[in-house]
Amino acid sequence: MDRKNRAVQSDDQFRQVVDNVPTVITVLDSDGNFIHANRIAREYTGLTLDEYRSVDVISRVIHPDDAEKVRAARKQAFSGSDPYEQEARLLGKDGVYRWFLFRYNPLVEGGRVKRWYGTATEIQSRKQEEERVRQENVRLEERNRIAQELHDTLLQTFLSASMQLGATVNGVPSDSPVKVRLDRILQLMEQGVEDGRKAIQGLRLSDAHPLDLVQAFSCVQRELAVPSDIEFRVAVSGRQSPLHPAVQHEIYRIGREALTNAFRHAKA
Q: 145 exposed, middle or buried (CB, 10 Å; 0-12, 13-18, 19+)?
């Protein structure tokens, strides 16, 4: 068997092997033109082998927002002989783009690149987790910004007004008919300052720290200084399920506000 026939037979055997590998595999020449795409690659994208070899594959299956970056990276990499990798969104035949990690390794013979072997591994779940963390960080930064603004403006103004009112009340004779009303107003303002501090503290809580809702709600009566003659208890039924920390904090804030309104305004 001559060298040419042996090379053809070797290529056929290689294609048979890679067609049975359960991952996306492509083979490109030194200029970046597709020579082969294995069965998984063809089934995922819906492109035939002839289409891989004849059409602009990047335009067909790479997300438009990623296409130019993919072209630029390939052009730079294929001018050399170093392996490289890149993340991009790949279009499946179901019409959905998913994130993949593309890795390319060169076959070098005689000091020159003869072929590039590429693999693509789906990383959609990892990208979704990265986006979730990014959004949580943005939300946490926004909450901290709001907390700082509340502390530096509204709370400080309220605290200053409360202190001035307190000084005024101290100068009012104890038998004055307005003394009781002013004392009540001062009490409400002091309670408002305390509630504001707790709200700011809640905004600054990191979503990474879980909250025990049963314990938190059980402490509401003591925190609000609810009279002891008002009956209050927390009852738990069913099996407790884990919640995302952000959800736990939102439930607590909503529940605490409802309880606060009930204790103060419902004449329980």
A: exposed
Q: What digits encode the pLDDT tens for the residues 108-154?
A: 998 899 999 999 999 999 888 888 778 877 877 787 788 788 777 77
Cβ neighbourhood burial of 177 (10 Å; 0-12, 13-18, 19+)? exposed
- Mean local confidence (pLDDT), 178-189: 83
Q: What are phi and psi of 102, to 5 degrees?
A: -100, 130
C-alpha span between 70 and 199 (Å, rounded)? 47
Q: Strands 97-109 and 34-37: what pairing?
A: unpaired
Q: Report which secondary-structure segment, H or E, holds 252.
A: helix 245-265
Structure tokens at 212: 């025990």
Half-sphere exposure of 63 (CA within 13 A, CB side): 12
User: According to the model, what pLDDT value does residue 208 have?
Assistant: 47
pLDDT confidence bin for 3, thresholds 50/70/90 = low
Tokens of 223: 């925190």
Residue 199: per-residue pLDDT: 74
Amino acid at residue number 243: L
